[in-house]
Specification:
By secondary structure, the protein is an alpha+beta fold. The protein has a domain of 91 residues: 60s Ribosomal Protein L30, Chain: A (2-Layer Sandwich). It has a 4-stranded mixed sheet. The longest helix has 17 residues. The N and C termini lie far apart (93 Å).
Length: 227
Amino acid sequence: MTSFFIRLTPLTAALLLAACASAPVNTAGPVPATALDAWSSRVEVISQPDEIRLAPHLNGLSGTQARALTEFHARWVMAEGGLITIASPSGGSGENAYRVGVGARAFLLSQGAAPDKVRLIGYDAAGAPDAPVVVGFQRYVAVTPRCGGWEAVTRSADNRPYANLGCAVSANMAAQVANPEDLLRARTMDPADTGRRTTVLDKYRKGEVTSTAKDDQASGAVSTAVQ
């Protein structure tokens, strides 16, 4: 009778024991959140108004107010804002305020705002003679978590992550997002370019090249300088 045995190295034995002691993988339930994931839920996105107030003028919109509206429009474009409301007071300086409100809407349209994105409304100013015209929109702001309490990261006797692991990453990412609304919901997709798709498929069926024509100006070749 021939006997044989397998010689196990310490490393091989440790791996086998670990495999026997490990729990089965749960493929049905959700993957538990890690310490890094926990900080993403602490980034708060709030909505707040971005407003400017325009004083009523007999001759309508002034040059200073036009410059203020230019800066306002730039912020609106940067924030990818929604509806712009121009609220004119009723009573008091109603006629002058109305001229400023109409002028403000016309100016914003001249800057590129779509007509359906700029709405004129009224508000009760309780007869105040100097009640302003309020131009504004709702913008989103990301409130980042406060990081602190940096204990010794080398102490890992219990093999747990330190308390602030992931805080700086989440705070920096939230602070750098151009439009914090993207943290709340996904953007809608633009419709497909059906014209281009039809052109490419037609060339494919004919066995022609489907790529766009080569642009010589986009070449990486070094041009010959004139001496």
